[in-house]
Amino acid sequence: MITFEDRVAEGASVPVEGWDFSWFAGRATEQRPSWGYARLVGARMTRTGRTLDLQTGGGEVLAGAAATGTPAVLVATEGWPPNAAVARRRLEPLGGTVVPVSESDPLPFGDGSFDLVVSRHPVTTDYTEVARVLAPGGTYLSQQVGQGSLRELYEFLMGPQPPGTAREPGWHQQQAKAAGLDVVDLRDEWLRVEFFDVAAVIVFLRKVIWTVPGFTVDAYRGRLHDLHELIERDGPFVAHSRRFLIEARR
């Protein structure tokens, strides 16, 4: 029988660098948004000369999108050094360049440097900077994590949390318009997520660090034990992620 401590030890030992979620196969599932973000990015990259991916993680999504055709200029930013190293190994063979930039820093690129700016699940979005580095007629395409995503999970661990607005699609639409961008597409979906054991929860929270800010196993050991017993008794823990797609043009 696999004990709670076994699950904790496993969850704490899994590397979390990069943005590859293949470890979760058989351990957790997440319904995918209907629009197919990587496919949309790939289609646009075949029609552009200069692409910038903000907060690329390990470059997994960008590399997959580039399989349909690499633009003449391919640049990605990433602020966490372990992820940046993974992204370089993945993107440099495709002719890409990875620039170390924190999500809170201005972009180190000239005005109008890119025809396409993309970003999947950014921590923050500075629409003024996005608009500045886009060339006239350029496009910003992003899949974002919506407000209340995985509320069932983070409130199980942290208790009730006050609602916010910074991840509401309408707020992003307002910010984009204020920066001078024309929002041409905005879609919002709730998606089913299942965790089959508490080790998968631990790895997820270590990897997707904004879900439970400051998460450590020791800080949440009691609630993790309760979650382990709940899953063992009732089956997978079900939550719902929220994703929205925003496309804007300069």
What does this structure look like?
This protein is 34% helix and 25% strand. It is an alpha/beta fold. It has a single domain (4-249), classed as Vaccinia Virus protein VP39 (Rossmann fold), CATH 3.40.50. Strands 1-7-8-6-5-2-3-4 form an eight-stranded mixed sheet, with helices on both faces. The chain is globular and about 60 Å long. 37% of the residues are buried.
Q: Can you give the helix content as a percent range?
A: 25-40%
Structural class computed from helices and strand pairing: alpha/beta
CA(first)-CA(last) distance: 58 Å
Strand content: 25-35%
- β-strand number: 8
Strand order of the largest sheet: 1-7-8-6-5-2-3-4
Q: Report the oligomer.
A: single chain
Order of helices and strands: HEHEHEHEEHEHHEHHE
Count helical runs. 9
Q: Supply the CATH architecture.
A: 3-Layer(aba) Sandwich
Instruction: Kindly provide the radius of gyration, computed on alpha-carbon positions and rounded to a whole number of angstroms.
Output: 19 Å
List low-pLDDT spans. none
CATH superfamily: Vaccinia Virus protein VP39
- pLDDT averaged residue by residue: 95
Count of spatially separate domains: 1
Gross geometry: globular
- Reading off the top of the CATH hierarchy, the class is best stated as Alpha Beta
Major beta sheet, specifics?
A: 8 strands, mixed
- The CATH topology is Rossmann fold
